Write a sequence for this structure.
């Protein structure tokens, strides 16, 4: 087996130079670096990472602890982390904490004992033991997707990266309100998670922006799981005045909500409109196609790696929290008709063109349910919603034509990104 000394002789350089090329510990002239790389390729040299870690006290490995790896959202995050790690010459050790605080601390300790250089962790709803362990051992860590509480002065204790949650959720609510819905339900996630709290906050802000009251009975917890969402949706449907529109707060809960609706013969969007947080690969294949908020999952993973490497390079710098924008993917489960997708640079739908012959908005005729329509009946066909008054909220999709067809929605992005059917 060729050694580093063999590579040095073949390239005509010192062993130290070969080490600098392999470890990136010192700049090397481009032609010298290329000569070393050519020699490595020609000889088939494989670096001894164990020996190198004994010398450098670095293993060039990253520990990744995320729950529900089978969830498409976390699967795409994993792809982003892996791509970012490999790009910088790092390997991954992966563990699933199962959203269990005690197991979470154990798997993080396991990764730490394997001498990973740093960790990327999606914390549970109660990460007290986790945080205490990481702080006690000064483990370089980036919290991913879910945030933890900041210090009393407002400064974060660890580096964190996540997507926006509150504003995109508010956008779903105001979109549904603009379609005429007054009773909009929310299937929220597991209590204690930062994402759950932020999406509930966004839901309330959306109601306020649309001029709608907040009814606590319309907010149920699906505990971030399909089964939990199925039970929660059934509870909403059993209300004396059930919602006419529904927002689900992650992709697993969207599946559970759809199952509950199907079992009760409730049609989407004819009987109830549906918007969901998290896009996923097959959201485009449902009938109707799911209107969703797409998170930049791969970018989140790659950004977490970059932040962790920055922390390893400058251990004393202040911790930071980075948020990435989401994309509103406008499909048909909300009750809108299909229209070719296009991106926009605003979080709000474009105003309708007056040249397209759209009818003016009308005032609501009922205090509950859908504006300008009867309460959805299980035996009736699609409900033709009228546009609510502009006083109801800042977001107004285009209004129905004077000939009475469904609305022609604008495709609107939370950020300047095209529709991405693979995000979740």
């Amino acid at each position: 087996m060729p050694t580093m000394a063999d590579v040095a002789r073949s390239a005509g350089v010192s062993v130290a130079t070969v080490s600098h090329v392999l470890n990136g510990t010192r700049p090397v002239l481009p032609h010298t670096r290329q000569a070393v790389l050519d020699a490595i390729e020609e000889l088939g040299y494989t670096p001894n990472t164990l020996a190198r870690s004994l010398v450098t006290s670095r293993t060039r490995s990253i520990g990744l602890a995320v729950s529900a790896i089978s969830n498409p959202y976390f699967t795409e995050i994993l792809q982003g982390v892996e791509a970012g790690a490999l790009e910088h010459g790092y390997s991954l050790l992966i563990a699933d904490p199962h959203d269990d605080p005690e197991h979470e601390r154990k798997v993080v300790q396991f990764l730490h004992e394997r001498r990973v250089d740093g960790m990327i962790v999606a914390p549970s709803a109660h990460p007290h033991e986790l945080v205490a362990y990481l702080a006690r051992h000064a483990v370089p860590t980036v919290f991913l997707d879910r945030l933890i509480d900041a210090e009393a002065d407002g400064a974060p204790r660890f580096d964190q990266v996540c997507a926006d949650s509150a504003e995109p959720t508010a956008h779903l609510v105001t979109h549904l309100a603009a379609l005429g819905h007054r009773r909009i339900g929310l299937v929220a996630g597991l209590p204690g998670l930062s994402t759950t709290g932020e999406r509930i906050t966004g839901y309330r802000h959306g109601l306020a922006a649309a001029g709608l009251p907040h009814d606590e009975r319309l907010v149920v917890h699906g505990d971030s799981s399909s089964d939990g969402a199925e039970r929660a949706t059934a509870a909403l449907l059993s209300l004396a005045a059930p919602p006419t529109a529904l927002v689900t707060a992650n992709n697993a809960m969207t599946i559970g909500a759809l199952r509950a609706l199907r079992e009760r013969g409730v049609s989407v969007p004819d009987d109830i409109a549906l918007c969901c947080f998290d896009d996923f690969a097959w959201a485009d294949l449902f009938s109707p196609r799911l209107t969703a908020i797409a998170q930049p999952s791969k970018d989140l993973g790659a950004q977490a790696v970059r932040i962790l490497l920055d922390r390893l390079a400058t251990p004393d710098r202040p911790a930071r929290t980075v948020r990435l924008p989401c994309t509103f993917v406008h499909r048909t489960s909300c009750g809108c008709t299909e229209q070719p997708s296009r991106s926009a640079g605003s979080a709000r739908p474009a105003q309708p063109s007056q040249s397209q012959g759209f009818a003016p908005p009308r005032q609501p005729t009922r205090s509950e349910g859908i504006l300008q329509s009867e309460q959805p009946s299980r035996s009736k066909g699609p409900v033709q919603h009228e546009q609510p008054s502009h006083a109801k909220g800042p977001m107004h999709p285009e209004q129905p034509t004077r000939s009475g067809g469904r609305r022609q929605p604008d495709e609107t992005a939370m950020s300047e990104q095209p529709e991405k059917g693979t995000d979740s």
